[in-house]
Amino acid sequence: METAGGGLLLAATDDPLAAFGHDPWWVTLIKSVVIFVFLMVCVLMMIMADRKVMGRMQMRHGPNRFGPWGLLQSLADGVKLSLKEDIIPRGVDRTLYIAAPMISAVPAFMTFSVIPIGPEVEIFGLVTPLQLTDLPVAGLMVLAAAAMGVYGIVIGGWASRSPYALLGGLRASAQVISYEIAMAMSFVAVFMYSGTLTTSGIVEAQQPIWFALILFPSFAVYLVTMLGETNRLPFDLAEGEGELVGGFMTEYGSMKYTMFFLAEYVNMLTVGAISVTFFLGGYHAPPPITMVWEGANEGAWPVLWWLLKFMGVMFLFIWARGTVPRIRYDQLMLLGWKVLIPVQLVWITAVAVVRMLVNEGAHPAVTGAVVVGFSVVVVASIIGWNRAVRRQRAAEAAEHTEEMRRMRETAEYGGFPVPPASAPHYGSSVPAEEPRNTPPASTGKREEVTGA
User: Fold this and answer.
1) Per-residue confidence band for 13, with pLDDT thresholds at 50, 70 and 90
2) What is the pTM of this model?
3) I need a surface site. Which of 271, 302, 337, 344 has the fewest CB within 10 A?
4) CB neighbours (10 Å) of residue 140?
């Protein structure tokens, strides 16, 4: 129906997508520009917060030269990188080398288009939601965009024709495959409890209670996987400086390096916003506040609640980077395949069974028995896993003890592998030395050594 201002006001319906797809082009343009500016400003602030907060954690000063309290340090770094000479190494695949940073950055911006930041508001007489768009399969679109971002990293590593960059790209692809599975399983529990794949519907389904509380295992696994998805410490093995120089970014500089850097931080912002949308109630006020304040979700307050939750998740990124050391690559793969995925399989099965029983109206005793049964299985699995870990550690300790014993008893054992003198020199045309005759036994007389 028409409003007094000439705008279109949609009637309330049961369709969660009824409020989308009716905005004029200029409203869509305004939303797109606001999202882009918001992400760019958040990137600058996040880089500055990374340095300042970690500086305080490590009892040192962060940036304090450019701008008041160092607030313009991120802007100065961006200007410095943009003014550096753009060098393309000889022998690279120029097309893919140039396109890789853009392929990595674009999906991160796309994902933010389905994030609801607030309820419907009125803009120049037009009622529109504070969300660019929504889709019937918005949850799957989030996963697809997250998976597409790694293609830029892999292509950049391959196109650089450098062993360090190639290894970084391969690590990133294996890492994303491992952690994408656990992340998708975290979303499955959310989809089952909300009954929809739309992001706006998921937010509305959390009005009574947040999914982070009733689906805490999914939320905990998602917090781990979002660090792995964004290649942040302690999971930044794709660009490990101690092993791969710079990883997939080794051969990049100037604005291309800036694009990769931008993609990493925009990905952080995106997965943080997804955690707020899927697990922390979106723009709704925390339940204790709504119990004592009826107007907590009216006016501009929903946007403020969303920003506070968003800032809290961003602080978790900085906290993890400043306190948790980088793990080995085999530990990264072990955590993804042998811990997170099995835990998610058991948890999703339990959630599906309990949800089905509740929907079918089963007796609470039956539901409780199922919950107790799964709990027993989980406890037994944890006990068995602890025993397996203890046996493995005992075997490693015995192997280490045997290794040390052999090193003490045999001087040559465990030493540096030196090729014998009779072996040919690798990479040269020097033939192997003839075997030398065994020197005669000493007669006890002092022999004169000459140069002949």
Assistant:
1) very low
2) 0.77
3) 337
4) 14
